[in-house]
Amino acid sequence: MQKLLTYKNGLRVVVDTMPGVKTVSSGIWVGVGSGKETPDINGLSHFTEHMIFKGTDKLSAYDIANKFESMGAHVNAFTSKAATCYYVKSIDEYFGKCFDTLAHIFFDSKFDDKELNKERKVILEEINMVEDSPEDICYDLLAKCLYGDTAIGQTILGSIDNVKRFKSTDVKNFINRFYCANQMVISFAGNINEDQVDALVKKHVLPKLNTNIDDSKETKKITVKRNHVERIKDFEQSNIVLSFPSIEFDNELSSTQNVLNAIMGGGMSSRLFQTIREKMGLAYSVYTSPSAHLYNGSFNVVLNISPENTDKALQAVMSEIKKVVTGDIKKAEVDRAKVQLKSSLIYSRENVQSVMIAGGRMMLGANKQYDINDRIKMIDSVTLTGVNKFAKDIFTDSAMCSSYVGKAYKADFSKLLLCR
User: Fold this and answer.
1) pLDDT, tens only, 26-66
2) Torsion of CA 3, 6, 10, 16, to 10 degrees
3) Same fold flag, 2-208 and 227-416
């Protein structure tokens, strides 16, 4: 059972005790990502994430890596549009020392100019790597297509020009503004209890925590209009994403959407996989993937295909979408999808890092505790009628967006992409 600890400065700490394991995952979450950035600082959340690991007054970048690895720990971080998370996974014997070190670099990184300039080059290489990844380009184009010039339409990595000019003062000012107690959650999962966690937080976090108030908000609900974007580039395969505006994070219909996702493209038995890959042989990879932000969301169909198959593959996708819009989904498909989703939830309970991430993301995004039993009940409550209605509601021509990355093709998206 997950426990919640709250402190006077607004910090929330979730603790998921798992006595049957011998590991612990600890994550420090901050409610800032590219979705809160203005154009002039786009990429600074990700830049800051990198710099946290580049040294303190006590530890060099090598010392940090060596200290964690000497304890057999895995430490890393990630930035999304909504959050930045710094986390470490270790055996329970070392979890206290690991969290001490994680808190130390989180609060005491010095952002040395020499280290900053070296890491700037690394991030520029990361941006360049995206140019060799058609799927990454496709998703970045899609975000722009869906959300335009708003903050969540921006890339997480930011522009090359921005990364080239960021200075240590920019990072320090960014942390002072956004790394605040009211926008932070610390999540623990594994062979620990709330008393151990409370002691660690009081020792390593509360004395150094920024008590400023961050009242900034992610982009509010956006009205999406039909649009298509593309990048013609000489890749061997082409990537296509078709996207339909859908529900936001932790919406009451999330389980219904997840069932539809499993039916349409969530696995090898899904409709799109069976039709486009198994029966027609048009794609190696085809799947669906919902994406949820705090106030916006989308339901996406992803294709990796040869350019000459663009026309046939798109027609096949739209044929399957037209079927579900007319209420074609069967009870057996819904029942199978519900079993798949419940099994996936239960499997995730065997991984302390998955549990830590689920708890931290839910508390940060919805200010709620993550309860697997509630999630299972929500899946059980999904009905055939509800899934058919959800499909009919989201698969609309007027708000459909699409992105294409690859070689030139012979197809007309405006004529092919019709749901009804």
Assistant:
1) 999 999 999 999 999 999 999 999 999 999 999 999 999 99
2) -20
3) yes
Which residues participate in catalysis according to the annotation? 49
Cα–Cα distance measured from residue 27 to residue 13, given in angstroms and rounded to the nearest whole number? 10
320-335 in b/e burial notation, b at 16+ Cβ within 10 A? bbeebbeeebeeebbe
CATH architecture for segment(s) 227-416: 2-Layer Sandwich (3.30)
CA quadruple 270, 275, 281, 282: dihedral, nearest 10: -100
Sheet bearing 401-406, strands edge to edge: 227-232, 401-406, 238-245, 297-305, 283-292
Q: What count of residues does the chain have?
A: 420
Q: Which two tokens stand for residue 323?
A: 């079927």
Could you give phi then psi for residue 60, rounded to 5 degrees?
-80, 175
Residue 411 · residue 239 · CB < 8 Å: no
DSSP string, 253-268: THHHHHHHHHHHHSST
Q: How far apart are CA 84 and CA 407, in angstroms?
A: 35
For the beta sheet containing 74-79, the strands, ordered from the edge strand earlier in sequence to the opposite edge, are: 2-6, 12-17, 184-190, 23-30, 84-91, 74-79
pLDDT digits (tens, 9 = 90+) for 225-278: 999 999 999 898 899 999 999 999 999 999 999 999 999 999 999 999 999 999
State residue 165 phi and psi, 5-degree precision. -110, -5
The CATH superfamily of 2-208 is Metalloenzyme, LuxS/M16 peptidase-like (3.30.830.10)
> Which pair of tokens denotes residue 365?
């995004």
Q: Is the pTM of this model over 0.70?
A: yes
> Are 359 and 190 a contacting pair, CB within 8 Å?
no
Can you tell me the distance from the alpha carbon of 130 to that of 123, in angstroms, rounded to the nearest whole number?
11
Mean pLDDT of 133-157: 95
Q: What is the Cα Rg of the chain in Å? A: 23
Closest by CA position to 106, among listed 205, 32, 176, 10 = 205
Residue 197 backbone class (left: φ over 0; alpha: ψ -120 to 50; beta: rest): alpha
What are the extents of the domains in the chain?
Answer: 2-208, 227-416
Parallel, antiparallel or unpaired: strands 238-245 and 297-305: antiparallel
**Cα distance between the two ends of the chain:** 46
